[in-house]
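Input chain follows. Return structure tokens only.
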Amino acid sequence: MKRILFIFLFLIAGLAYLFELDKFLAKHFSVFSTIKTAYINTYISVSEKIANHFEHERMIKELQTENIELKEYKILYNESHARINNFKEFIKNVELPDVDSQIEIIRVLSYINFDDFTNVWLDRVPEPNNKILGLISENYASGIALNKQGKLIGLLNGNKDCTYAVFIGADKSPGIVTAADNLDELFVKFIPIWSDIHIGDEVITSGMDNIFFEGLKVGKVTEIKEFPDMKIATIKPYASPLKKRYFYTYKKINNLDDDLKNPEEIKQLEENLNN
């Protein structure tokens, strides 16, 4: 029965469309025209809303994707901007020695251990002969760089293994810088007991260890202790290496070592010595 009713209604709808019954009704009965117009307008409105909804969804997904990409670019921009600012601050008022030396800029990669801020990885390959390099920032001695398991590490001022030779005061009394009890201080040990040093004396690198050149400022003496065999001075360092992301590495060029790399000149030197 339902199938027969469906077929009947289908035939009526088909015949109405075939003989344009809707136009006839709309022409002679205005109410049908109004219903038809309202239906068409409603259908168009609903269709547009559905289309706009899906279009909005598509645009929202695109904007979300773009927003994620822009956030990533912003992070990269902020990182690059901070790196440039650090580099600008680093190179201000730089004074390099007029000596036979090799000066290079080096970047700090990260801490080696999170509980030791004086021990850092550096962005460079170590020297082939395991030579110790001096680290310079703000025209002050800031630490040393050396080879550790094929990688270059920085031992900054305050590290127990960071040592280099210095002069103290006008008489250039010799000593060795090493870590103090506090990170904001350094000790100068092995000062000869007869040395005439005073509080307020300036401490400079001596260059006697071939790590730094002579005359690079380190700090000022704040306390002096005398022992039977030596004096120990506490100094306030000028540099603040724990806050730096860039350093200069200093390496003295030994011309004699460079000459000895030439076999002919080695032979000539041997002949001169034998004669």
